[in-house]
Amino acid sequence: MKHSLKKLISSLLTVIMVFGVLTVVPFTVNAASFTPRTTAPDSSNAYYYSSNPFYQSGYGMPNCTCYAYGRAYELLGSKPRLSTGNAGYWWWYNKNNGIYSYGSTPKLGAIACWDKYDQNQGHVAVVEAIDGNSVTISESHYRSTFFDTRTITANSSNYLTSMRFLGYIYIGDFDTNPPDPVDLGTDFYAYIMNTNSWKPLVNDGSHNACFNYDVYENQKIWHFIKKSNGSYKIISLFDNNALDVDLGKSDSGTDVGVWTDSDTANQEWFIYGSSAQYYLKPNCSNCVLDMTGGKYYDVDKIARDIISENGYGKYFGHATGHGVGLDIHESPVVSPRSETMLKKGMIITDEPGIYLPGKFGVRIEDMLCVTDTGYKNFVSLPKELIIV
After folding, report:
1. Residue in 117, 51, 106, 56 with CA at minimum distance from that of residue 80
2. DSSP code for 295
């Protein structure tokens, strides 16, 4: 019997390699295609309010940076790697750190940037529509207009002429027309991978879908069965339960789990994209499978990778943080060894540091509450370097 199971798994892995690997981001679902924003976001929208670092630090709307950051967050479904400083610094922060591509040609969802010739004060807005040389932007103004849209020329020759127009930061590739779903076959087996961490989506046996290495092989393998409407039913090889959107909800932030096969729309998944860049959209929602959850070691890895990429990895010798409760220091530790899953409502510290022997050290500490869309930071101090 053991030999037969081994042969079956071997055959499945061969099929996986032939059909390719699906790249997804799990736990919740977030907006899929580009929809222009023509009205102000309401106070229940976490991208602009509770999960927005500008709002958290007391600089909420009306404020161009709070709005543009929130709009980028909304479009991407994850926190953008934009500056959290003054508007005039956004362009230079992105350019100096090589984060997003940029240029003078407007694109949907791009951040339009101006400064007052000082790389500090300025304005930022978001491109919502393009018609030839005419560009419609959405924006907010610090202590002035809460929200508006306007049409400007592509080089801003008719708007904010007292400032220097710098260009556009391209945070992503967006299209007003969603692509057609792809056909990968009628019946096949595959891993569902997050290629950033190269972890497989697994069925943990308790109705949860999560990313993990250390499980049985059949918990990592998914059976894709094509349906007549072009969608796929995705069945776990572990227990024959299906990848499922909680209660068939369509809202951003809805949980995704593994439940009894019900042959309903909340268990139908359309596949979009191309090889090694696939993503999944449930039939019950105009949203895509998105990763906003993870383990404590994922949080540690993000901080450690950034420090290492800048040449200071060997000078960061402690855990990134720890849990906080009735005691100041509580388990689990936010470290490379932690296996605890992050869940909504957890309180953790985020305190990476760099310590140069014989010179000095710097540690910046925040206290975070895990939310549906990311986190809320209880610390409002600015992160930019202040020279006195």
Report:
1. 51
2. B
* Dihedral angle of Cα 213, 20, 195, 220, to the nearest 10 degrees: -20
Q: Rounded to whole angstroms, how far apart are CA atoms 47 and 65?
A: 13
Q: CB neighbours of 36 closer than 8 A, spacing ≥ 6? A: 128, 129, 136, 138, 176
Is the CB of residue 211 less than 8 Å from the CB of residue 112?
A: no
Whether the model pTM is above 0.85? no
Cα(152)–Cα(106) distance, integer angstroms: 11
What is the 3-state composition of the chain as percent helix, strand, coil, each rounded to the nearest 5?
20, 30, 50
Contact 246, 267 (CB under 8 A): no
What is the DSSP-derived secondary structure letter of residue 179? P
Question: 3-class SS at 10?
Answer: helix
Distance CA 120, CA 91 (A): 10
Cis peptide before 332 (omega within 30 of 0): yes
pLDDT tens, 217-273? 889 899 999 999 999 999 999 999 999 988 877 665 567 889 999 989 999 999 887
* Gyration radius of the chain over CA positions: 23
**Cα(239)–Cα(253) distance, rounded to whole angstroms?**
26
45 φ/ψ angles, rounded to the nearest 5 degrees: -85, 105
Confidence category of residue 149, pLDDT binned at 50, 70, 90: very high
Contacts of 277 (CB under 8 A, 6+ apart): 23
Q: Distance (Å, rounded) from C-alpha 110 to C-alpha 134?
A: 14
Contacts for 56 with CB less than 8 Å, ≥ 6 apart: 50, 376, 377, 380
Tokens of 18: 């032939």
Q: What is the pLDDT of residues 294-353, one digit of tens each?
A: 555 556 776 777 787 778 888 888 888 888 887 777 776 777 666 566 666 788 888 888
How far is it, in rounded angstroms, from Cα 29 to Cα 385?
36
DSSP state, 148? E
Paired tokens of 368: 């975070």
Q: Taking a C-beta distance cutoff of 8 angstroms, is the pair 262, 247 a contact?
A: no
- φ, ψ (nearest 5 deg) of residue 178: -60, 145
